[in-house]
Every structure is written in C-alpha cells, then in structure tokens.
Specification:
10 strands, single chain, alpha+beta, globular, five-stranded mixed sheet
Length: 264
C-alpha cells in the first residue's frame, strides 16, 4: 500500500487546489512583485571607524512558505538571526582593496498577510564592519543574493559625520526600504546589487527617519499563523512528496486562485 501514498497525496493536492479556486477571494492582495520573489535592500551608512548596513529581505508568499519548516524548527528569533548571519557571510565588502568581514549585530523578522491565507516575510538585519579612521577610503560593497532570481535589488549610501566624495548609488530608497514599491517601476524593478564609494572624514551627523513596515506584525505564538488557511495546509499535505512538489503545487494554487478572482 505504500506505493499508493504518493498517489493519494497527489489527489489531495488536486483537491486542495480545486478548493482554492472555488474559495472566496482573499482580502489581502498578492505581493506586488509576484508570489515567487525574494527582494533585497542594503542601506549603507559610513561613519567614523564603522560601516553600518541595514540589510532587508522581503520574501513573497512562496519563498516565505519554503522558510516555514525552518521557522517551526528553530523559532522566529533564531531563524531571523541565522538568516542575517548568512546575509553577512554572503555579502562582500572591500576597503581600499582589502576584504573586510561584516558582523551581525541585530536581527528580527516580521510577517504581513499575503494571498490565499499565506503570509509574506520581512527580515531586517543590522550589519557592521570596521573602517579606517581619520583618512579617506575607497569602499566597495556587493549585496547578498546578487545575482539572484527575480525580484527587487536596491542599495543606498549615506554619510554620518563622513562625506561621500563619490558614490554610484542614491542616498534615498525609492521603495522606502521595501515597504512601498513604486507602481510605475513594478514592470522594471530596481536591480542594483553593488556600490562603489569614496569617503573622507567630516560632515554633518545623520538624522534617521525611522519607519515601520506598513501592516507589519510580530508573529503571534511562535509559528501558529503558518498553519492557518487552505494553502498552508496544502504545503503540509505535499511535504511527503518533497519540497519541490510542494512549492509547485503551492504556485499552481496561487495562480489558479488569482485567475478565478479575476474571472469573478
């Protein structure tokens, strides 16, 4: 009878997908850049002796669902810390041509409602690296996840009591650090994965405008929200067939539900 289990699981997938199509449309809209995207932002701040990097990842519904087993296994806090540590390792920083390691000094993750009962994930990391003090320096940065799959990639750079005498990236984020994607750029998303700076000592102190991600919330009761909704149940039901099958089924369910909503 064991050989029948994959067939039964596949039948369960089809049943769940049909249920998605026939179910009422979700009140939350899909991710503006698509259900499959992982979007990245790095905000560089050069200060005396230190480079600070605000690294943000915005995971749409499907990559967020793929992250669910790890979150359930370790808890959201530990998962976010591990994700940020990986981002620090995968980023590359050189100062005057020498490699310099980035260190994770802060991490947390938040969830926002997505399509068909799924959540999206926002991960925020605080990374730092040492810089030479009292002298000019050339700084080259390449962000984690670049080059990567489809999605938004953006870098900004500012000085804090330091002056950027040369920079090939802007000082402000057009997406408000992945919180508001400009509608006119959705068909051609930002794709900046590296920055090159020349900095010197001196300049005004930086005044930050702190903003919370809209509609963001801390995940309640561990990972309870991951178990809610028919699509999340679909992910659990397809797990015995392998993660790839589960993701394909999830994608099919989301696309079919979107099509049904459009026709309705």
């Amino acid at each position: 009878m064991k050989h029948l289990r994959p067939l039964r699981a596949a039948a369960a997938v089809l049943t769940a997908v049909c249920a998605l199509v026939l179910a009422p449309a979700a009140t939350a809209s899909a991710h503006p850049l698509g259900n499959f995207t992982v979007n990245h932002y790095d905000g560089l701040v050069v200060s005396p002796g230190t480079l600070r990097v605000a690294h943000v990842e915005d995971l749409a519904e499907i990559p967020a669902a793929q992250a669910r087993p790890g979150i359930e296994r370790t808890g959201m806090t530990a998962w976010a810390r591990q994700r940020c540590e990986r981002a620090a390792r995968d980023s590359r920083l050189t100062v005057d041509g020498r490699d310099v390691a980035l260190t994770t000094v802060g991490s947390h993750a938040r969830v926002r409602p997505g399509q068909a009962g799924l959540d999206t994930l926002r991960v925020e990391c605080e990374l730092t690296a040492p810089l030479p003090e009292g002298t000019t320096a050339s700084v080259a940065f390449r962000g984690a996840g670049a080059p990567g799959g489809p999605g938004w990639r953006e870098i900004t750079a500012r000085g804090d009591r330091m002056t950027l005498t040369a920079s090939d990236v802007p000082t402000t984020s057009v997406s408000r650090e992945l919180a508001h994607y400009p509608e006119e750029l959705l068909s051609s998303p930002a794709d900046t994965s590296a920055a090159s700076l020349r900095v010197r000592p001196g300049g005004p102190a930086l005044v930050d405008d702190e903003r919370d991600a809209p509609a963001a919330s801390v995940l309640p009761r561990g990972a309870d929200r991951w178990t809610a909704g028919p699509v999340a149940a679909l992910v659990r039901r397809t797990a015995p067939l392998g993660s790839a099958f589960a993701v394909v089924a999830l994608g099919a369910g989301l696309m079919l539900k979107g099509a049904a909503s459009a026709l309705g």
